[in-house]
Amino acid sequence: MSDVHAVNATGRPLPERHVAVMDRVGLGLTDAAIGAALNLTFDTVKSHLHQAYDRLGRRTGSRPSPGHGSPACSPVPPR
After folding, report:
1. What mean pLDDT, rounded, does the chain reach?
2. What's the predicted TM-score (pTM) here?
3. Which CATH class is domain 16-61?
């Protein structure tokens, strides 16, 4: 999916499966949708995400919802 080769803090590349899962996170897919797309269980997707975050030195796996900060996704004020 991605031509970018993600590397961890030591400069070593991440495993292909971690990159595939992270690519889909970047597209805004849910963990369940990622699992369906890659034929993985929900728990396996979570495991890949935690391992990738650890290898990248991230402390959390939280992510913004798709469209976060986009004017099109801003709440409409009451009339």
Report:
1. 75
2. 0.64
3. mainly alpha
